[in-house]
Amino acid sequence: MAFLKNPFSLYISIFIFFCFFNKASTKTIPPSTSSDVELLLLKIKPLLQGNTENLVLSSWNTSIPLCQWRGLKWVFINGSSLSCNDLSSPQWNNLLFFKDPFLHLLSLQLPSANLSGSLPREIGQFPMLKSVYLNINSLSGTIPLELGYGSSLDDIDFSDNLLSGVLPPSIWNLCDKLVSLKIHGNLLSGSVSEPALPDSSCKFLQFLDLGGNKFSGNFPDFVTKFGALKELDLGNNMFSGAISEGLVGLRLEKLNLSHNNFSGVVPFFGESKFGVDAFEGNSPDLCGSPLKSCSTNSSLSSGAVAGIVISLMTGAVVLASLLIGYMQNKKKKGSGESEDELNDEEEDEENGGGNSVGGNGGEGKLMLFPGGENLTLDDVLNATGQVMEKTCYGTAYKAKLADGGTIALRLLREGTCKDRSSCLAVIKQLGKIRHENLIPLRAFYQGKRGEKLLIYDYLPLKTLHDLLHGLLNT
What we know:
about 475 residues; alpha/beta; Leucine-rich repeat, LRR (right-handed beta-alpha superhelix); Phosphorylase Kinase, domain 1; 2 domains; 8-stranded mixed beta sheet; 21 strands; about 25% helix; phosphoprotein; membrane; Leu-rich_rpt; Kinase-like_dom_sf; signal
């Protein structure tokens, strides 16, 4: 009643009330430089549409209700969705609605929208944005580093665009929430950077598709820590090296590692879990189920090793013969020393040299090297031989000893080792050589008539020709 008698007091009271109310209300509104709507209109739209106006994005304007903007879903901060149930509501005609700090972008989905611009770095600034589908467009440029700073992103699909550069390591900052990451069919290159934190397990990530790019380097081992992974596609890249055994520990339902440069052995995933198409188009060395058996590869490798051993042994003998011939041309002829004499004193002067064994009745000398101490001159002279091969530097025999053993004899061509001193020096060097890939020289025999024999262990292998051509045809 007092207010009715004094209207001025009523006005003063109302003014104080509204000032207090407005002050209290401003404390509940979070500070914001721009709303999600403003960010979308001013930053996102211009970059996505490029230089020409895009028909799909033409719906993004203030004359059309937000709920009718194509490819977008909105949500209030309390979790309720924005809908168009009552378009007659005054809020649709109020421009302040577009600056509402409590309204946020939830989803951006524009597949096959004829977009030709680039990925805006501001995508990472939406606080409640969960999914971004911009696949099957013509977006170019790089994937912005700022994308990894989105606080809510869990579903990303940039497949089938023209994106280039590297995959930014910051993408793994989303590991705590990320469920799906698909960037198939772009121009991305370089190695795939692993998460900065070594214990990042991306425990919710189920779908990882990096296929159809130009990624290189070794297999990204860190993906084997993604325990929830169901589908992995690394196909049509330039990865190399071995495929990680850690993949076996994942519960993969789909796998594509085809058309890379992977080599080695395919991890065993179990019978018929993944077909040939998951591994085809890699290095010919890649083997194991469901590809070719690795046992065939092993057999070829053994034959190749055997061929190398024989080649090295033959090469050593040829080299020795050439060296001896060269030394002969450097010496004066007619030294007066008999070709068939072996001087025991000279042999003992060499450290590690062979022991000389004399024969009965002037049958020649036998020089023994480590491993040949059990041979005698009678064994060598009485052995029955069978020709194995003939070459320009001598004939090889398979010789049977009286005690049942077998040795290999190489009868050097007549005229070899004319200079005794240089010949003995080379023979002694050959007798010292011991290597896992060479057959060791066990003894050397020089007869009174000038015959010279290199004596080796006999190995029941085929010839080098048989090994190389026979194994390659199997």
